Amino acid sequence: MQGFILGKKSEQSQSFDEAGFRIPTTFIVTSPCFIVDIKEPARQGYFSVMLGFGQAKSKNISKPNQGKLSKAGIKTPLRFLREFRLESDKFQKEGIVINNHKIEPGEELKPAFFFKQGDYVNVSGTAKGKGFQGVVKRHRFSGGPRTHGQSDRERAPGSIGQTTTPGRVYKGKRMAGRMGGNRVTVKKLKIMEIKDDGIVVKGLVPGAKGGLLEIKKLK
């Protein structure tokens, strides 16, 4: 079965592989992460698992989410709830069985349930917001000439359209605007180490330190 877990970005560091090359690494904290609910194809029309992650203050959790946690028997107030879709033909009435271990709502997930050293995962998160940026930073434009009287055109975008025909700017034209803050997925990151409270992956992951991450194992 496909592996999945929630975590947050922690420490960025570096390590050395078997060949002696220095590689960047990121430690992703995955504790506490609980199974909150299991959506069944017969009732909801699809098969998915809802996970809860990150400890929060009880007063900041909405009443519907508090009800979900209470139904699962989870006493820890969890900040984030996310669903992971699974293939309907792999649904089993007795629950989800992984490596001969049955997991049910209310149980805390550990990385060792799904992952092992050497596996590859996709990591999704929200990229850092950069605010309103020009075309040089946002789209890597080269800018205008630095000489021949172009004193104020060094970071300008240049022409953005034609004249009478078509008489407008095409949709999707690369221009200045808000940069970052999008959902980003970094694919095929290798797991370097498995710990009780998280995993260490090779490479960098999106978002700021402490940001929510969704980790999915490659099939």
List keywords for this structure.
single chain, about 220 residues, mainly beta, Elongation Factor Tu (Ef-tu), domain 3, 3-stranded antiparallel beta sheet, about 10% helix, about 40% strand, elongated, structural constituent of ribosome, Ribosomal_uL3
Can you describe this structure?
- InterPro entries: Ribosomal_uL3, Ribosomal_uL3_bac/org-type, Transl_B-barrel_sf.
- Keywords: Ribonucleoprotein, Ribosomal protein, RNA-binding, rRNA-binding.
- GO terms for molecular function: rRNA binding; structural constituent of ribosome.
- Residues 139-167 are annotated as: Disordered.
- This is Large ribosomal subunit protein uL3.
- This protein has 219 residues and is mainly β.
- The chain has one domain (4-129, 178-217): Elongation Factor Tu (Ef-tu), domain 3 (Beta Barrel), CATH 2.40.30.10.
- 9% of the residues lie in helices and 42% in strands.
- It contains three helices and 13 strands; from the N terminus they run βββαβαβββββαββββ.
- It has helices at residues 41-44, 63-72, 135-139; strands at 4-16, 22-29, 33-39, 47-55, 78-86, 96-98, 101-103, 120-126, 129-133, 177-180, 183-195, 198-202, 212-217.
- Strands 1-2-12-11-8-13 form a six-stranded antiparallel beta barrel. It has a three-stranded antiparallel sheet with strand order 3-4-5.
- A hairpin with a 2-residue loop joins β11 and β12.
- The longest helix has 10 residues, at 63-72.
